[in-house]
Design a protein that fits this description.
The structure is a single chain. By secondary structure, the chain is of the alpha+beta class. The protein is built from 27 helices and 19 strands. It has a 6-stranded mixed β-sheet with strand order 14-16-15-17-18-19, with helices on both faces.
């Protein structure tokens, strides 16, 4: 296994990467405050932007769903990858060579996972090139006969594995990949004659993760003398896990996030057909049933969070064949339904056609119509459940009633439950009260998740009403966001001031603990680490709120050239930055001045109480004079 990435490299990449460039690949960003950008949050559905990015701080934060963090956090959440993978991806974007500790070496020698991914990418390129070879003519005829031309094959990376014992092996050996690496990646199999190409004489599809890295392959049988399964996939490997893989997720992830919909189909050509028909949210499982790991992946990309409004939920649409295998797949999908906040549906094509056949025979519009005329998954399961009983008999009606009760209880939109009670009672031929009674019995064994009211957490806006608390908050925000502008001396004076609000005092204490990192790139992270769980979200919010300084805008000449526009924007940026710096320094000085004024009033009170003690009176007077001097120093001449 590869060693750990050197910490100094992690910090260096975090500093060098422009988080706005990374986020901008997923979110359309526009200017927000004086030093922030904003856009629609990729993690939850919203109509007005509450997602903010501060390139200067290298942070993002959504004031709607409270997601936030640095560039690594964003990559992890968007691409559903580990921290190390996020660092590697960020480093690759700026051509930074990472160093691995514990004997890890440089990136080209960075461990097993990287080598396996590189081998898979090389194999993908080999297969794609082989599809154009004379041997692959029958493979091209096959895929063209399914309605997919050269452009479609290129879009989805369709390739051809030569019908050879070791063509791929020789090619990759020539690229310095060892047999051990290729067998570990699942590109070679082992038999009595040693290792040989796993995929031979088959069409291939690359199975990628959300980052576009190729994890493995699916390969379809073409030859009559091929005794293998119709579809042969990469076996489990250190990088490929079929229970977590979704074919097409790399192409569909942005549409899924934007449209808040995912269509789950059953095959590689079904994904191709859907995308070419305009259903760009389609993905497919890879030789396994839809399961819990797939749910987790889809929820992250879908932004599947509780909205409190069923109309605002996303959609998960399953397509199943009407045969027994399809029915079992539907049942397994329904078993995972409760893990989604999104509404789940089933779309079944007429006459048992799969999406690929339907598009080929009836066109794109027919395929889109099937997806649009979807049926709620719970209704599909209810009908299938009832079909398993003879409702012409008393016994059958009783058994059907008991069987459908848990399904009705699981309907997410509670406003639909009573309506389905009445409808289902008609389907079975019993009274609605019979259904309700069965539901009460089933409810004893069904766990229903309910939202827990955690109370009103303090936010940035919570301190607006009290002017003292507002001033304290603003000083801490300024110090958290712009320590470089305020400076270490003034910053230390701010943190030495009394803070009257207990929560703000806790934030101040965390900043005091983290003060050795003041002004460094890791300043904010150090403050968050020093914060308790109760105030950490507030610290994150303080780090991202817009400083109340309006952006300077100059009049745009009617005949402005491109160079003139660039000069004007540069001047606007410089003037805005100057105003911002003046604001945060003034906030810091005002906070210190208020604290000095408070101390002066306390000393005047002591002076009145100790008027008869000459020595004590003189000491207090000296302290008052010193406070006044410090207050004058806070306001240097303009």
């Amino acid at each position: 296994m590869a060693g750990r990435i050197r910490k100094s490299d992690i910090d260096e990449v975090r500093t060098r990467v422009n988080i706005a460039d990374v986020v901008g690949q997923y979110v359309s960003l526009k200017r927000g405050g004086a030093d922030s950008l904003k856009g629609l949050c990729p993690f939850h559905d919203e109509k007005s932007p509450s997602f903010h990015v501060r390139p200067h701080a290298g942070r993002f934060h959504c004031f709607g769903c409270q997601e936030g963090g640095d560039v690594y956090t964003f990559i992890q959440k968007m691409d559903v990858c580990t921290f190390a993978e996020a660092v590697e991806k960020a480093a690759a974007s700026i051509n930074f060579v990472l160093t691995y500790e514990e004997g890890g070496g440089e990136r080209s020698d960075s461990g097993q996972r990287a080598r396996l991914l590189e081998a898979n990418r090389a194999a993908e390129e080999f297969f794609i090139a082989q599809l154009a070879s004379p041997e692959a003519q029958f493979a091209r005829d096959f895929i063209l006969g399914r309605g997919f031309d050269k452009t479609a094959c290129e879009k989805f990376g369709v390739g051809y594995a030569p019908n050879s014992f070791d063509a791929l092996r020789k090619h990759l050996n020539g690229m310095k990949f060892t047999d051990v690496e290729l067998e570990t990646a699942g590109l070679l199999s082992r038999g009595e004659r040693g290792v040989y190409d796993r995929f031979r004489g088959r069409l291939t599809w690359p199975i990628r993760d959300v980052t576009g890295s190729t994890l493995g392959f699916g390969a379809r049988r073409l030859r009559d003398d091929d005794n293998g399964p119709k579809y042969l996939n990469t076996p489990e490997s250190p990088v490929y896990h079929k229970s977590k893989a979704l074919y097409g997720i790399d192409l569909a992830k942005r549409s899924i996030s934007k449209e808040r919909q995912v269509v789950v189909v059953e095959g590689y050509t079904d994904v191709m057909a859907c995308h070419l028909a305009g259903i760009t949210t389609a993905v497919a499982t890879c030789g396994t049933a839809f399961g819990g790991d797939h749910v987790q992946l889809i929820r992250r990309i879908l932004g599947d969070v509780e909205t409190g409004d069923t109309r605002g939920r996303g959609e998960v649409i399953f397509t199943f064949d009407p045969d027994e295998a399809g029915q079992k797949a539907a049942s397994k999908a329904f078993a995972e339904d409760s893990k989604f906040e999104a509404n789940t549906f089933v779309a079944v094509a007429p006459e048992g056609l799969d999406p690929s056949d339907l598009r080929q025979q009836r066109g794109d519009a027919a395929l889109r119509a099937v997806i649009e005329t979807k049926t709620p998954l719970f209704e599909f399961i209810i009908r299938r459940t009832i079909a398993g009983f003879d409702v012409e008999t008393v016994e059958g009606r009783v058994q059907a009633t008991r069987a459908v009760a848990p399904v009705i209880l699981g309907i997410k939109d509670r406003s639909l439950v009573e309506g389905y009670v009445r409808v289902v009672s008609g389907w079975i031929g019993v009274e609605p009260d019979d259904i309700r009674g069965a539901m009460r019995g089933a409810n004893n064994t069904v766990t229903v998740e309910v939202a827990v009211d955690t109370g009103d957490a303090l936010t940035y806006a919570s301190f607006e009403r009290n002017p003292v608390h507002k001033a304290e908050r603003d000083a801490l925000v300024a110090l958290l966001q712009h320590p470089d502008v305020i400076g270490m001396g003034l910053g230390a004076d701010v943190l030495a001031c009394t803070v009257t609000h207990p929560t703000l005092a806790a934030v101040r204490d965390a900043m005091v603990t983290a003060f050795p990192h003041y002004g460094e790139p890791g300043w904010l992270a150090a403050v968050e680490e020093a914060s308790g769980e109760g105030i950490r979200p507030l610290v994150s919010e303080f780090a991202m709120v817009d400083i109340p300084v309006y952006r300077v805008q100059r009049a745009k000449p009617w005949n402005e050239s491109e160079a003139g526009a660039a000069t004007r924007v540069a001047k606007e940026d410089a003037d805005t930055r100057k105003n911002l710096e003046a604001y945060v320094v003034n906030v810091a000085r005002s906070h210190i001045d208020s604290d000095l004024a408070r101390q002066r009033e306390e000393l005047h009170g002591m002076l009145r109480r100790h008027g008869d003690d000459v020595a004590e009176r003189e000491d207090i007077q000296r302290r008052i004079t010193d406070l006044e001097r410090r207050r004058r120093e806070l306001r240097p001449e303009e």
